[in-house]
Specification:
Layout lengths: L36 H13 L4 E5 L4 E10 L9 E6 L6 E4 L3 E5 L11 H13 L13
Antiparallel strand pairs: 1-2, 1-5, 2-3, 3-4
């Protein structure tokens, strides 16, 4: 069964943040626009799939950096929808309502970025085309 993908417009950098849509494969450093409820839902879905830390700014002035591991309440409005994350350097779990989020930053390195089978295959084919033998593509150190 083919995998469904979303298409996004290209990036547009401003002085201090990115304001346009971003490709899901390269989210590190992205600050999505949160202008509408749909923007918030879409950005948090991408943050849930992201394999690095994000930084959430709330209406109450909190800044929470951590890894999103859960979300819930979909379809019941922003007040009833939430993400749960492990704050960086802590074992506690924090729950943040979508409606409380004013800014989202993809602040941490995505540990799995560029590690797809297609990336490995491309590197393998490049080495093979260059005449190398006994080709080995070793994983990157974490």
């Amino acid at each position: 069964m083919p995998q469904e993908t979303k298409s996004h417009a290209s990036l547009s950098d401003t002085a201090d943040h990115v304001t346009a849509r971003k490709e899901p494969e390269n989210l590190e450093g992205w600050i999505p626009p949160l202008a509408s409820p749909e923007d918030i839902v879409e950005a948090l879905e991408m943050a849930f799939s992201y394999r690095g830390d994000v930084t959430i700014h709330t209406r109450q002035g909190q800044i929470i950096e951590g890894y999103i591991f859960d979300r819930g309440g979909h379809g019941r409005g922003l007040e009833n929808s939430y993400v749960r994350l492990y704050p960086k350097g802590s074992t506690e779990k924090v729950r943040v309502a979508y409606s409380a989020i004013t800014r989202l930053e993809f602040s941490g390195r995505d540990a799995a970025a560029g590690k797809s089978f297609q990336t490995w295959l491309k590197k393998y084919q490049e080495k093979k085309a260059a005449g190398e033998t006994n080709i080995r593509i070793d994983p990157e150190e974490l």
